[in-house]
Amino acid sequence: MTLNNSFNARQTLQVGDKSYTYYSLVEAEKNGLTGASKLPFSMKVLLENLLRYEDGRTVTKADIEAMAAWLNNKGKDEKEIAYRPARVLMQDFTGVPAVVDLAAMRDAMKNLGGDPRKINPLVPVDLVIDHSVIVDEFGTPKAFDRNVELEYQRNGERYRFLKWGQTAFENFSVVPPGTGICHQVNLEFLSQTVWTRKDTATGEETAYPDTLVGTDSHTTMVNGLAVLGWGVGGIEAEAAMLGQPVSMLIPEVIGFKLTGKLREGVTATDLVLTVTQMLRKKGVVGKFVEFYGPGLTDMSVADRATIGNMAPEYGATCGFFPVDAKTIDYLRTTSRTNERVALVEAYAKAQGMWLTPDMADPVFTDTLELNLNDVVPSLAGPKRPQDRVTLDTAKPEFLGAMEKEFRKAGETAKRVKVDGANYDLGHGDVVIAAITSCTNTSNPSVMIGAGLLARNAVKKGLTSKPWVKTSLAPGSQIVEEYFRKAGLQGDLDALGFNLVGFGCTTCIGNSGPLPENISKAINDNDLVAVSVLSGNRNFEGRVNPDVRANYLASPPLVVAYALAGSMLVDLVNDPLGTGSDGKPVYLKDIWPSSVEVQEFIDRTITSELFKTRYADVFSGDANWKKVTFEPGLTYEWDMGSTYVQNPPYFEGMTKEPKPVTDILNARILGLFQDSITTDHISPAGNIRAASPAGEYLQSHQVRVADFNQYGTRRGNHEVMMRGTFANIRIKNQMVKDESGHVVEGGYTIHHPSGERMFIYDAAMRYKAEGVPLIVFAGKEYGTGSSRDWAAKGTNLLGVRAVIAESFERIHRSNLVGMGVAPFVFEQGTSWETLGLKGDETITIKGLAGELKPRQRMEMEVTSADGSVKRVPVHCRIDTLEEVEYFRNGGILHYVLRQLAA
């Protein structure tokens, strides 16, 4: 790539005895980019990226000038840019299918007569195996070893495949199971804040901001370390790996001013739930959020990372924090090299990217403000992260949900006997209390807080209620080490919070089964059971199929709810239990002070701890070392495997794309309302025996006990397409029971037969009949995790278009990346205002021929009685690059043809 230097930005930075090439924003401002110094810090990162990659084709001088012009239009002119992140981060749920696609592309390249070695990551890719451990065993010292044993038994095929990938592809590293959650490993070890690359031919070393895209939406956690990164679908990540720029619109940037300090007894979790609620209300979907103000002065990187982590929950692309003294402290504490720490400080100061308390605020599109002193203890639930409830109102709010959400008004006194147990169970009982997920298990203040609260509870003689499934799944081995050093693990064990594994467990549905007798009591009596978890996601059907109400809370509150055992206990005013002295014990009696928490942090968390634990991070434990595989340039697919299969995306692919056709006389597969998440669309969690996926596995001689879960089978399209739109809580408004209520589960009505069947079965029948399909939805379609299978499954079911009132950013992009057209209604129109029932046929013309970004088209709706409505819709293929992806049948096809040519 021949690079231009229109603004004379290419300069040399001397740090100690080393010199680096860098692209100076200060020089660029002197040479025509007026006002660059006033840009938000996150925009400065984008500007540097464009200066470094100015080639006159993908990045032009006009593109760079548009970044400076942002000060006038503040991101509202919808200017497209090509952005190239420094690296890609993956977890194994989304990483396995991405590596499957790369392996399939190598086969396809061979079939097109090209060189398979061209299919290789061109930027560093780190895949952290963290999503496969399930909480089967809990509340015992054997829990960790038993869960690891089961993990390797279930995932041997996947792990062999990933080991093959690590040797077959260049620039591709695998962090083995049992190390930690990808975001925490990224924060503690992989990220550098300033990245460097050496030119092997010239020896020249270039320094630039550390940036990434990740196949997990919570990639944004590393924004707390001033690393610009966000979640993309696996499809987009694969393109970035293969050297394609991320096509994006210059964003609006919302400034979030923080002032004051958190009060005693208030945690970072309480803060992030407050921030999430505020930003959801503000409306920041597709926008950058950048934090600033005097409240940052004393805020640790761990607290910043907690806020950054939840960006998908507040709907933003990222939640960015600039480099300052706290960033440097964290890099030192986590044992980054002295040379790197010195470079980060020198680079940030040279670029005007160093935040100081006295500097002028950047210019933002819009702002909002929070005084940290106003934050109060909080939870979020029962089914969305933005539904914050204060701790003192949690009980009445749950009672309100019992009436409105669960239609159980007047049933709160109902208790039922549990078989073989000396206790009963009722509505609102907490059956899962899990310290889990990246959001909080990276944060020493709340983790140490949970350990101290456990210690104080044990001293008082309290125990967890016997119906609560308790678990501790730390984000990295660092946590295990500081709990051990602090002497707190024994107290957590005494309350049943034994170590169950290092990874993302309950938050992604890997909570494991409840004890059989508890599960039976819940299901036989239609109880509204509760989980309390320190995670970031609490969507319906996600945590556990037996649990209908799910609350996000800080790790100390998770422990407190395990002691109380019910949402009907008011933690502010009611006792948690009776102490060994016969007196009631209240939460305030055992809550540790912030001074005590900080003393433990100062005493136990040292740079030596990080240095030791991450010294040999890619080698893995004895289990990983025993995993064997067949090396080779292309993968030897096992046709009998139920975990990894060669996907059909490239079957019959030609060197030139076939012309796109219009959508003619399509049938409706589903009519969905607002807030359909990727959890509803993409297969996740348990695989039921009586489902298309369950039947497929049983036909391949897989026992129900060995089904594992959808996440681990993402490398097999046969399982995944059968599980698309199969969530137990999804409601297709086409399907109603005798009394007219919408039926839960993955069903549809086939037309014109009128037969009710599984969505997968109907889709296959339509495919055999040669009938294209459409899905209709309401607002915020595709919110949640950046699950590429929500788009892949949609494509494989034969869906040509999804028509909604609005889309979540990543999912819209993923649909285009899989050749599915996203459309939005004009304001005030929806499928409901059109009176659609599901038996109509749909025609959309305009996709064939010269398609333009965001083109307005006409949808023709023909009712069963032959009457026709014509409705304007807007095609949300947003950029010229996306038009090319769509024309090629998807982003991977586009890249493959480019490389083959």
Automatic annotation (TrEMBL):
A GO biological-process term: tricarboxylic acid cycle
Broad EC category: lyase
Zinc keyword on record: no
Cofactor(s) annotated in UniProt: [4Fe-4S] cluster
Positions of the Aconitase/3-isopropylmalate dehydratase large subunit alpha/beta/alpha domain: 75-565
GO MF annotation, one: 2-methylisocitrate dehydratase activity
Enzyme Commission number, as recorded: 4.2.1.3
Pathway recorded for this protein: Organic acid metabolism; propanoate degradation; Carbohydrate metabolism; tricarboxylic acid cycle; isocitrate from oxaloacetate: step 2/2
Catalytic activity, as annotated: (2S,3R)-3-hydroxybutane-1,2,3-tricarboxylate = 2-methyl-cis-aconitate + H2O; citrate = D-threo-isocitrate
Entry-linked InterPro entries: AcnA_IRP_Swivel, Acnase/IPM_dHydase_lsu_aba_1/3, Acoase/IPM_deHydtase_lsu_aba, Aconitase/3IPM_dehydase_swvl, Aconitase/IRP2, Aconitase_4Fe-4S_BS, Aconitase_4Fe-4S_dom, AconitaseA/IPMdHydase_ssu_swvl
A Pfam entry, by short name: Aconitase
Keyword Coiled coil: no
Subunit structure: Monomer.
Family of the protein in this entry: Belongs to the aconitase/IPM isomerase family.
Name listed for the protein in its UniProt record: Aconitate hydratase
Gene that this polypeptide is encoded by: acnA
